[in-house]
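Researcher: Sit down with what I've pasted below and flag anything odd:
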Amino acid sequence: MNIQGLLHEQSIMIPLDASDKESCIRAMIDGLEKAGCIGDKAAYLDAVLKREQTGSTGIGFGVAIPHGKSAGVTKPGLAFAKLAKPLDWQSLDGNPVSIVFMIAVPEAAAGNEHLQILIALSRKLIDEQFRESLLSVTEPQQLTAILQNI
């Protein structure tokens, strides 16, 4: 899985100053649109928010991975945000979120590709040292270097 190849400079936000979960999601979708991954922002936003309603994508350890299946996605993409201040995400462990990865996959490819990205990210995010390295990034180039090993 080439996670690094899914990231674009326009979809990396270091830091992202968001007031709440939805404003964070909207900003990250804007970044994915600028990167050419989203053709219909409203459709993708609707899919992501509906997914959040079924259960929080805050996986714990200060990390959230919002995603949604949508025809509004034109090509697979990944967005990253290191939040300026932690946000409540109704995470599984009850802790606020400081790192957010957003996965965008076209609806037609959602089954397999979506899961591959989630599995690859989740495996690395279990590692405390990996999470700490994400919290220390100050520039997009640092992030892409860290993600080379996924």
